[in-house]
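Entry 14. Structure prediction run on the chain below.
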Amino acid sequence: MAPPVKTPLVYLYQWFLDCLYPVFRLLTLAKRGSFSERFGFYPPDPLKGLGGGARLWLHAASAGEVNAILPLLRAFKNDHPKVKLILTTTSETGKKLALEKGAADAVFLAPLDMTRPLRRAFQAFRPSLILIAETEIWPNWLFRAAQNQVPILLVNGRISDKSFPSYRKMRFLFGPALGCFNQCLVQTRLDAEKLVKLGVPEKRIQVVGQMKYDLKAPDDNKAREWGSALGLKSGDEIATLGSLREGEAEEWIAQVPPLLRRRPGLKLILAPRHIKNAGPYQSQLAGLGVESFLRSSAAEKTASPGPRVLVLDTVGELSLAYHLSKAAFVGGTLVPIGGHNVMEPALSAVPVLFGPHTQNVSEAAEVLLARGGGFQASSAKDLALILEGLLDPAQSRISGEKARQAVDSLAGATVKSLKAVNAYLP
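Output returned:
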């Protein structure tokens, strides 16, 4: 592969960010926790445990991306137990989830796309290979890898309809940066076409599908134990409203009182996409006369029935909630966000409800609808009526099996991705 060429705009981008470095450093000195890692200052102990052998550096921006690439991490570690895995994230929640899942040998926050943080990170990590998950296109980072002659692959790659126009307008910046990728393993043919339009040679692009379809459902016993501690039993009539975004959450909250009245045995789990919204959603419920409790402050609920609505304000437990449900709604679909992982409930053979905005998960939504495991409507009111029908045990079981079949039909991206990654190992 010919070395990528830096354009004047790339140099200008680098110079501009490097000029901002001292200002940004001063403004963030008071930040607590591990934020210093974003400047390339990493604690020595985790690095010492990596030894002197081959190292793979994988970057996944947030908790969603971490979850999505878990199948690849596990498969890679199984095939290459001696290669050390370093995982970086942009968000603290992503880092926390990665640590909880034991996803890598070392987990840190990613360096900022500036010369000094990147130099420190490359010196500390000494990667043999770099994998970037989904849509993390940082020009300085990519050129640094090329400069250090470290192969870099895009895995589980995607370019959303929302971000593509911006990338295209800035093609003189992002085009050369994308040229640093040795190979781009993307989710769909549409993603491949977008990369070609941004200047990536077609021969470097491979459509492999989405790795999140290769995830496994939560362990049944673990899900039961989790639910039991919260007063939720596997035989209960449970429904989950997951990854709720502002705008659609208010729609659904308005439907909660009538749902609870019509279904006396129903227990609802509300999971905001952003934890900061858990308190406000609980207050909105209270304003409608609905008592609820937060997961983080929940004591044992087995002794008494307690409130019938649980608001999740924790990371990494949504899949457990889905697993116990008779039906589940996946958010980001009643508002023009584009949809979150509609296949996550389907992994547990749970029928999936979603709104009309599914452009980010169009393939999965179409397969779910075609197989009979997915249900779509344009309002929370209409979706609530569909949800009620799916609470019937027989209907839930039949539709859930069809949802599971939809997932199985799209599986296989992990095996294809691992084969491509193996070709670049030293």
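Residues 8-27 form the longest helix (20 residues).
Filed with the rest of this week's runs.
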